[in-house]
Each structure stands twice: as structure tokens, then as C-alpha cells.
Amino acid sequence: MSFSQIDTYKICPLKYKYSYVLNVPVPPNHALSFGITIHDTLRDFHSKLLFKAVSLSELLDIYEKNWQPLGYVDEDHRKIQFEEGKKLLEKYYEQNKNDKTIPFALEKTFNLKIDGIKFYGRIDRIDKLDSGVEIIDYKTGATKTQEDVNKDDQVAFYAIAAKEALNLEPKKLTYYFIESGTKISTTRSPEQLEQKKKDVTEVIGEIKKGKFDAKSGLHCNWCDYNNICPFAYKG
Ligand code: SF4
Q1: N or C: which end of the chain has fewer CB within 10 A?
Q2: DSSP helix/strand/coil, 187
Q3: What pLDDT score does 100 carry?
């Protein structure tokens, strides 16, 4: 399993069933394509930086090579988003060009078991701190508030993975919102991480029991299955 499967179940168990039990295919999604493009670009950019200086034009070349064209409404939409991506990377370059930090790991994969279930995932970036590490997740969506990040499940999952699968001490958990250039950090205590593991175990238990009731609401508007789901919120 992946932690995003747990997330999907918590949003709506029926959505989980459509996606991971019935494997109902969905059309390509432009937000996903754009997210993958930016993540791959930053991975390649920082990997190159480990060996030599990288200019802005080289970064934009990397972007062009990693561009994922699927899921856009039409050619105009694709072009507009491509230009937006360039602006966003120019900003990222400007913000980071003097940063000499050498990442401890980029796109670090992990495997761990919770309640007998194997989890697989990937952490965008890990930086060493004086004591412990900083987990960094790049985000291409809207910037969240500090309050939202403090409650966010994904960084907590990464902290569990860093601790248990990679044997690291996650002292700082950071979202880097690329569009706004904002970094928001949070922390989780060992007790909070234990609680999160219990939550995951509970979700696994519900999945094992085959409980896939619909949980409709405003989020149905962004659900890939709202055209076929009889419970989709129509408000
Ligand atoms: S449309 Fe709503 S109720 Fe139906 S699967 Fe999606 S999120 Fe669940």
C-alpha cells in the first residue's frame, strides 16, 4: 500500500474501492502531469547540482525534457501551463541559487510494515540538520496555512517512514509550496506518530473488513468517479 491509499480511504471509502479494488481507469489529469513534471525537474536539477553549478537555462532545459503533456484541456491550456511552470522554476532558482546545502537524499524510497501490511513511498528530499533530519516535500498545489500543515497526515507518514524504515530522526517536516515559494515547517512528537500509526491500523482493519461506504460531500466535485458514482454530492 501507499500512504495516499490511506488518505483516499479517509476521504471516501467508496472512492478507495473504485480506485484500488475495482481499478476503474481515470483519464489523465493535468494537475498530476504538472506535479510529476515539477518533481522530476527538481530531482534532476538537485542531482546535477551535487556535481557542478547549474544555470537557470539548464534548469529550464531539464524542465522541457521532463514535461508531461497529458491531461490538459487543449493545446492552449498546455502552453499556458508550460509558461506558468517556467515562471515558477525561475522563482525557485532565484530563491535557491545561493543555497549551498547538499541534500542528504533525493526521492528517497522506503518500505515499511504497519500491522503486517507493506507500505511503499518516496520522500522528495531529506536534508541533514545539526541533530536529526529535515523531511522536505515539494508541492505544486495551493499554499496551505501553518494550521493545516500542523494537522497534515502526509508529513506525519513521512516522519514515521524516516524513523522506522530509514533509521533517521525527523526533527523538521517541511512543505515547500513551489508556486508561492513558501516553506512551511512543522514537527510531530513520538506520541503523535504512534497515534498516527494507530489511525493507519484502524483504516487497514476497515479495508480488510471490506467496508466501502460512500462519504459524499464537497470533495465529490474533485473526485474522478463523480460521473459514475450514485452517491456523488450534487449541491
Ligand atoms: S463521488 Fe463522492 S461519494 Fe462518490 S466515490 Fe467520489 S468522493 Fe465518494
Answers
A1: C
A2: coil
A3: 84
